[in-house]
Structures are given as C-alpha cells and as structure tokens.
C-alpha cells in the first residue's frame, strides 16, 4: 500500500473525492458502481464484485463517492473530518484512514 501524502476531507452526504490520475490508472469510470468496505478501521473502495455483500455506490461525474452513513457512523466521521489517502495497486483500490483530532491516523 502506498501513501499519496494527501488528505481528503469528507463533504456533504459523506462525499469524498478520488484522485483523477489513480481513477484512470485503476480503470475506474465515471458512473461505475464501486464496492465500499471497512477493514481494520480503514475504508476500502474497489471495483464492484457482483456477489458482494458490501456497500456499493456510484462514482460521480466529479469523481466523488459517497461513504455510506453506516460506515461513517461506525468510524465516528462527520462532514469536515480528514482522511489519509493510500492506494493499493495490487487490488486496484483506494484506502482511506481516518485522522483523529490529534492529527494521527
């Protein structure tokens, strides 16, 4: 997993922006359905698997994805909270790790 040395801020309705370069690199497309899951307090966004039981959302025209409210509630995330951004090239996934109020993830 690689850190992109970036943080992302949660917007209205749990929206988070995906970096354009990596969206293209991983083969995601606007309007595509993606899978969103929690793994060890990390939010993973990956290509949709038809047999998944995880949450799914669409990538918007502005390359945003809405983090489901149940995930935000489990991780105590609100609008304005910051997340550290990583990419996992082997799985073609984005990984967001919440940053606590002290600045650590």
TrEMBL record:
In what residue span(s) does the SpoVT-AbrB domain sit? 8-51, 57-104
> Which GO terms of the molecular function aspect are on file?
DNA binding
Say which domain of life the source belongs to.
Answer: Bacteria
Gene3D superfamilies in the record, alphabetically? Answer: 2.10.260.10
Q: Does the keyword DNA-binding apply?
A: yes
Protein name (record):
AbrB/MazE/SpoVT family DNA-binding domain-containing protein
InterPro entries reported for this sequence? SpoVT-AbrB_dom (IPR007159), SpoVT-AbrB_sf (IPR037914)
Sorted UniProt keywords: DNA-binding
Q: Which Pfam families match?
A: MazE_antitoxin (PF04014)
């Amino acid at each position: 997993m690689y850190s992109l040395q970036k943080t992302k801020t949660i917007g209205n309705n749990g929206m988070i922006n995906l970096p354009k370069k990596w969206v293209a690199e991983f083969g995601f497309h606007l309007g595509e359905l993606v899978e969103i899951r929690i793994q060890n307090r990390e939010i993973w966004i990956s290509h949709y698997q038809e047999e998944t039981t995880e949450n799914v959302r669409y990538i918007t025209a502005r390359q945003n994805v809405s983090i489901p409210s149940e995930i935000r509630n489990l991780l105590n995330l609100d609008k304005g909270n910051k997340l550290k951004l990583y990419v996992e090239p082997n799985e073609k996934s984005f990984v967001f790790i919440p940053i606590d109020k002290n600045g650590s993830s």
